[in-house]
């Protein structure tokens, strides 16, 4: 039933694709998507089945290490006979002597020593790669239990809330894991989306639509996400239930208005991306010591992915790179709907920034624009008002004429000597 609900809801969302995408990160970064209400917190115990190694007996190493761990616990109870009785444990010194030769040998084994360290590690610091290499284990059991994508054990491991490695009573390894189980989890491609905004005519106020910055491309369609977190190799995302404001219908999203006194507005995104809007014809970059100049494009927006130590300069504002290796930048040549600044927008700015000089200038500009509108369209307004007046007078005259005609056609009633006479 949950799977059917997911398919139906995704089909409904896909039908809302009517608007062009504004900015889309075209990287092949995988992402899972799921509904929050379908997530179930679950804990389980998984028996660790080690792989084979022709040069090393992994099973024997695990058994000896676990026996040593278990014997440490038994020796602890020897000092407390009451605990030994409560736990129904008995001294077995003969067994210790019998196994001492194995313990003495294995204590010199680096692998055994490290396994002992791992068994003592807190859950949060438990390293999957080291465990996998130590016992030749691929963690498939975790992927299957929590319904994570096959071959993505490192991401599934990072998503777990608890992971504790311990020895069972049979001297074998087991792992206690807790995480989010979701049978409706789907795999797609993660995308970063940014809306295209507009500057005011003065260039110091910027207005844009507040849309979700995360989306997942699944089955050829784009879906909005409420949130995403990066694990190791892919993103884990929650699908948005908002079917009105989506990344493919930004015209239905709320509008944000901010001050931009430098005529530059910068928005930061995951993946070390920045989207810069600027009132400028060109911008300069400095990448690995090389300087160059680039045109802004019709949208006045630029997408930046610059390495650390590099920057892009817009007017007198420098935007520094944060990427460790990759870099890219391009002007966005996509236009969006025009978003003029209104008196309501200026009221919001005044509430957030105070009655600044820029707010006053924009209010004066709105009044001036309204006056210019009246001047340009005065004759048209007079003609429209004249037509409205003539139509109103005509309708009133027709109404009066009809009333007179109806009044004249009414019968006359005469009262005389207790008699009533009706004259048609």
UniProtKB/TrEMBL annotation:
**Alphabetically ordered keywords of this record:** Membrane, Signal, Transmembrane, Transmembrane helix
User: Where does the secretion signal sit in this chain?
Assistant: 1-19
Regions crossing the membrane: 378-402
Native source organism of the sequence: Caenorhabditis elegans
Name under which the protein is recorded:
Glycoprotein
Superkingdom of source? Eukaryota
